[in-house]
């Protein structure tokens, strides 16, 4: 499959993909989405394999609220690993499984915690199964939004890191950064 990259981006020495861009178009990135109702540089269904980028050809990949929608998340992350250059970075956000936002959208197929990405970590615990490919560094953190009055009030609660085990909605998203 030939990949048609916009001329203004083909000359760049660095390739950065914004996968599942939706309404968040990023200048300087190749914005990819399957929806014809959003502005993007490449319309492509990310559940189709293989993705149209060559092995070790991409420097950076960003996705925000995408992985939870894919039918086969391990296969998608395998494709990310395949197309990233050594030292390349894959980062983004997914809904935290301990938040209602993870469950309200009926198109969410996968749920994530701060430990979900350990399966792709080269330094994972020995008793944790891998998927046959690894990232050299995996960084994950929980994110608490502050975009509403209720969220700002919730963020004042002390010991949220402990309370997340007993209460819902202490955090909203999982931020991840995987380095090949």
List the helices and strands and how they pair.
Layout: H1 7-10, E1 16-19, E2 30-33, E3 42-43, E4 58-64, H2 73-83, E5 84-95, H3 101-104, E6 137-143, H4 149-154, H5 160-163, E7 173-179
Parallel strand pairs: 1-2, 1-4, 2-3, 4-5
Antiparallel strand pairs: 5-7, 6-7
Low-confidence stretches: none
Largest sheet: 7 strands, mixed
> What is the number of helical segments per DSSP (H or I, 4+ residues)?
5
Which range does the strand content fall in? 15-25%
**Gap between N and C termini, in Å?**
25 Å
* CATH topology group: Rossmann fold
Keywords:
180 residues; alpha/beta; Rossmann fold; 7-stranded mixed β-sheet; 5 helices; 16% helix
Written account of the structure:
With 180 residues, the protein is an alpha/beta fold. 16% of the residues lie in helices and 24% in strands. Strand 4, helix 2 and strand 5 (84-95) form a beta-alpha-beta unit. The chain has helices spanning 7-10, 73-83, 101-104, 149-154, 160-163, and strands at 16-19, 30-33, 42-43, 58-64, 84-95, 137-143, 173-179. The protein has a single domain (7-179), classed as 3-Layer(aba) Sandwich (Rossmann fold). It has a seven-stranded mixed sheet.
